[in-house]
Write a structure and sequence with these properties.
Shape: globular
Distance between the termini: 19 Å
Helix content: 25-40%
Radius of gyration: 23 Å
Number of helices: 19
Largest sheet: 8 strands, parallel
Number of strands: 22
């Protein structure tokens, strides 16, 4: 769908329950829109006085909220996964994964890549040399690359190892591991963290001839996000391919959302060759009205399921790591402080991936060092903040650091069950301390991390934040129920808080004069519904810059 390139509209949007997310005037019944921007809010009479003669559009549904923002996603990758790749849910057994590969191979030419995911982290212990041989058979000898549910690890076939130049004697890359059979030393096909990039490079070379596929993937993903009520986001690992796809979408008039890009400022394990001066210099070339590549990205650790997250307490003992393994960070505190200082000089706010409590402490320490020398600076983000030592919680507010949380990664799920097999139980039982962070004054923003999770909708995530239960109903029990928050707090995490976190608060995130007319029209009155039903909220219409970009209008 191409967006209308005619002048932005002038009209009045009317509904008896418009929730503005503004303390000044929390509820209104009309919004005056001129050339896509809000010029007045209030009663219908006030709106008409601001725009005499303007057309009045009566909005459907139970309530209106600001367009939502997703503080952390990889929407181009997600669109690619949905349009062109094989999907397996993370609760599939190994036999089911291999059966899906066999089905996918039936439609592929000899030698054509099979790419997909997201196999569950709980399978990691089964992915040995025998499993790789079974994968080879299922794929008919084709190159296969399957991402796990964290997107930090890969399971690949023999042909994919060969395409990547990985042999039994190939050394492990920095911050990555080629898992090998303990008896023979042969690569099993399981790749952890930076080792994944070896196969990703080989795949990228095979796909170089089809850059238009990324544009269509981006268009598909934006349409999916608009359908969830999302009108703004931070793309969390903005490579050259992502820069090109988003700019092309803008040039075609199909970018119906505000997008902030996060360019790697250090070498990223999952985006080889995508950091450095040359990439940073490209930012202005790709900047547009709706696309702002103003943020940076750093991976300070990996993920707990593969024991690559940096933890303060040891992981549970296993045969590979022994009894006292804690993981580690990719940078020291002084190194990180220097990178952040260099980034601030360029005006770059950095999103720092930290899933372990030791990496979270290191990130806060580095920002503390930076502040002690330079004073107040840019608002950086700690992405995921899954494990946070209680002593560190007040430091988020003290240092003005955003807690970028992806609820689907921590409410009861297959991922959590896999984490329990690696991380001591008491730590898992205090994962994602959202209420504690909010009570301490931290800015908490919500994101999906799509396609690490298969659904970008914020509504199940909001339900999970309020109930601390699995919104799908697949798993019983509540995880750390004392950290549950209210509906209004959860909605703030996906509206005004996310806008502040991404640097978009001057444009969107609340319904206020001067901002873009970005709205989500809901079938549910969020504050009256059973919290266990929040995830079923349907977005009837989504408006971006005063135009309806999802749903039918009268």
């Amino acid at each position: 769908m191409h967006i209308d390139k005619s002048p932005l509209p002038t009209l009045i949007l009317h509904h008896p329950r418009i929730c503005t997310m503004s303390a000044e005037r929390p509820w209104v019944e009309a919004i005056s829109v001129h050339e896509g921007r809000i010029v007045a809010i209030g009663t219908l009479q006030e709106a008409r006085a601001a725009l005499p003669g303007a057309r009045v559009v009566d909005l459907p549904g139970a309530m209106v909220v600001p367009g939502l923002l997703d503080v952390h996603n990889h929407f181009v990758w997600a669109g690619r996964a949905e349009l062109y790749e094989m999907f397996v849910p993370p609760f599939f057994s190994l036999d089911q994964v291999l059966a899906a590969v066999r089905d996918a191979a039936a439609g592929k030419a000899p030698g054509e890549w099979i790419v997909g995911g997201i196999w569950g982290s709980s399978l990691m212990g089964q992915l040995d040399q025998k499993a790789r041989q079974r994968l080879d058979e299922a794929a008919g000898g084709r190159p296969v690359m399957l991402r796990d549910d964290s997107h930090h690890n890969r399971f690949v076939s023999s042909a994919a190892l060969e395409a990547a130049g990985i042999q039994d004697g190939t050394p492990d890359p920095t911050n990555g591991r080629i898992v090998r059979d303990p008896a023979t030393g042969a690569a099993t096909g399981l790749l952890l963290e930076a080792a994944c990039s070896l196969v990703e490079i080989a795949l990228a070379k095979a796909m170089d001839a089809t850059p238009h596929l990324d544009v269509e993937a981006a268009a598909h993903a934006i349409k999916r996000l608009n359908a969830c009520g999302v009108t703004g986001m931070q793309e969390a690992l903005t490579t050259r391919a992502v820069l090109r796809a988003v700019k092309a979408l803008e040039d075609q008039g199909r970018l119906s959302a505000w997008v902030v890009g996060s360019v790697p400022v250090t070498e990223a394990p999952l985006a080889p060759g995508e950091a450095g001066e040359e990439l940073l210099a490209l930012r202005e070339q790709f900047r547009s009205r709706h696309f702002m590549p103003d943020a940076g990205k750093i991976f300070l650790d990996g993920v707990p399921t593969s024991r690559t997250a940096a933890m303060l307490e040891p992981y549970l003992p296993d045969a590979v790591h022994g009894c006292c393994f804690r993981g580690g960070t990719t940078l020291t505190v002084p190194q990180l402080a220097k990178v952040l200082a260099d980034s601030e000089r360029r005006g770059i706010r950095v999103k720092i991936h930290c899933t372990g409590d030791a990496s979270t402490r290191a990130a806060l320490d580095a920002i503390d060092v930076l502040r002690s020398f330079n004073g107040p600076g840019l608002r950086h983000q700690i992405a995921h903040a899954s494990f946070v030592d209680p002593a560190e919680i007040p430091r988020f507010a003290e240092l003005d650091v955003v807690a970028d949380l992806s609820p689907p990664l921590w409410f009861p799920s297959v991922i959590i069950e896999a984490i329990r097999s690696a991380v001591p139980q008491p730590l898992v039982d205090r994962i994602a301390p959202i209420r504690s962070l909010i009570d301490a004054g931290a800015l908490v923003a919500g994101g999906s991390d799509w396609p690490v999770v298969p659904d970008p909708s914020p509504w199940p995530s909001i339900q999970g934040m309020v109930t601390r239960r699995d919104p799908t109903g697949r798993l019983d029990g509540a995880l750390c129920p004392e950290e549950a928050i209210g509906v209004e707090q959860a909605l703030r995490a996906y509206t005004i808080n996310a806008a502040k976190a991404t640097g978009l608060a001057h444009l969107t995130g609340s319904i206020e004069v001067g901002k873009s007319a970005d709205l989500a029209i809901l079938d549910t009155l969020l504050f009256d519904v059973d919290p266990g039903q929040l995830g079923a909220t349907e977005v009837l219409q989504t408006w971006f810059e005063g135009r309806c970009v999802h749903g039918a209008t009268a």
